[in-house]
């Protein structure tokens, strides 16, 4: 009795169909430095574009979307998690001042449904276009028997470039600098294991419509991650930026502390912003202590910038012009490298 790859659960034709469906959206992320590889085995990028740099440093980052993909699966909405992936990868590059150049993705699934894969990759490509980087390649792997037919996971890697003497970071930070907050679009892509635990152990469901929200909780939880890369680059070009902090797993204080020198602290004022309703809903229904909320969620701050005090007002105006809600979050004082929420 003969058997086949398809009988084992792998549908090559479905994979080829998915590639055809995603091509047009992937093309929209193209940069002029991208070079076509007829074989399709590799993504090519013309690095002669880097000759304009005096001493270019390549920056790289890799990440995933975590268990937020489970909510996408349960709701049958697949075009937003690609934005989450790009935000998690490319905005890490922005922290050091790097311009994003290109990205690759990897999707593992139990069964290739061409339209579903095309939605996922199309979302990645659309977000790459927003971030100013090219999606130069990727891989979709079918894992029957390891993942259920509707299950999937995703990861990505990105590369950027920054001039060596313009590298941002803790060594530039000084007492007296201002800390600016850039609003998150929601929960972004961190803390979803706690979110799912709250959903499993409380009266909340994805279909719930709390009075504080204008849509279902599920729709709110799938809000795509705001992508800050081009906004950070615009701030850097304007001058006065010392460092950035991408507020991801670990929360606001812990991530900001990563951008502080051992001789300075950040004092952050809770009174400077109103935490978005979705966080209070989760805290209340899940009976989550404040300290646990602080170290799990971004609480409405997706990116922080540390800037020279005389550059703060201009930076806030620039962010406003770019449509990014932003405010004066706190200050840098002498200390030992700790960020304090007070």
UniProtKB/TrEMBL annotation:
The gene is purM. The keyword GTP-binding does not apply. The keyword Nucleotide-binding applies. Residues 56-162 form the PurM-like N-terminal domain. Pathway: Purine metabolism; IMP biosynthesis via de novo pathway; 5-amino-1-(5-phospho-D-ribosyl)imidazole from N(2)-formyl-N(1)-(5-phospho-D-ribosyl)glycinamide: step 2/2. One of its GO terms (cellular component) is cytosol. It comes from the Bacteria. One of its GO terms (molecular function) is ATP binding. It is found in: Cytoplasm. It is an enzyme of class 6 (ligase). One of its GO terms (biological process) is 'de novo' IMP biosynthetic process. It comes from Actinomadura viridis. Its EC number is 6.3.3.1. Coiled coil: none annotated. Keywords: ATP-binding, Cytoplasm, Ligase, Nucleotide-binding, Purine biosynthesis. This is Phosphoribosylformylglycinamidine cyclo-ligase. Gene3D superfamilies: PurM-like C-terminal domain, PurM-like, N-terminal domain.
């Amino acid at each position: 009795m003969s058997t086949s790859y398809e009988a084992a659960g792998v549908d090559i034709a479905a994979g080829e169909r998915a590639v055809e469906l995603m091509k047009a959206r992937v093309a929209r992320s193209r940069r002029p430095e991208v070079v076509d590889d007829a074989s399709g085995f590799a993504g090519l990028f013309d690095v002669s574009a880097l000759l304009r740099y005096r001493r270019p440093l390549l920056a790289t980052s890799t990440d995933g979307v975590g268990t937020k993909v489970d909510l996408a699966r349960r709701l049958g909405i697949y075009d937003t998690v690609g934005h989450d992936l790009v935000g998690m990868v490319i905005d890490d590059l922005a922290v050091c001042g790097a311009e994003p150049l290109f990205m690759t993705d990897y999707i593992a699934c139990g069964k290739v449904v061409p339209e579903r894969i095309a939605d996922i990759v199309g979302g990645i490509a659309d977000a790459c276009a927003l971030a100013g980087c090219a999606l130069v390649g990727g891989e979709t792997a079918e894992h029957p028997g390891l993942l259920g037919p509707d299950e999937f996971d995703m990861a990505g890697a990105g590369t950027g470039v920054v001039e060596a003497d313009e590298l941002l970071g803790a060594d530039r930070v000084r007492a007296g600098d201002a800390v600016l907050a850039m609003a998150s679009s929601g929960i972004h892509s961190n803390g979803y294991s706690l979110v799912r635990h709250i959903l499993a152990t409380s009266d909340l469901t994805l279909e719930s419509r709390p009075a504080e929200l204008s849509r279902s909780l599920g729709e709110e939880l799938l809000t795509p991650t705001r992508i800050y890369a081009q906004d950070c680059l615009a701030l850097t070009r304007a001058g006065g930026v010392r460092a950035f902090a991408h507020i991801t797993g670990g929360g606001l204080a812990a991530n900001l502390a990563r951008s502080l020198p051992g001789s300075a602290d950040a004092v952050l004022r809770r009174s400077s912003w109103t935490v978005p309703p979705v966080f209070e809903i989760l805290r209340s229904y899940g009976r989550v202590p404040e300290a646990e909320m602080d170290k799990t969620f971004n609480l409405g701050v997706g990116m922080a910038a540390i800037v020279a005090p005389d550059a703060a007002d201009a930076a806030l105006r620039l962010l406003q012009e770019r449509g990014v809600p932003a405010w004066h979050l706190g200050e840098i004082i002498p200390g030992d490298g700790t960020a304090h929420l007070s």
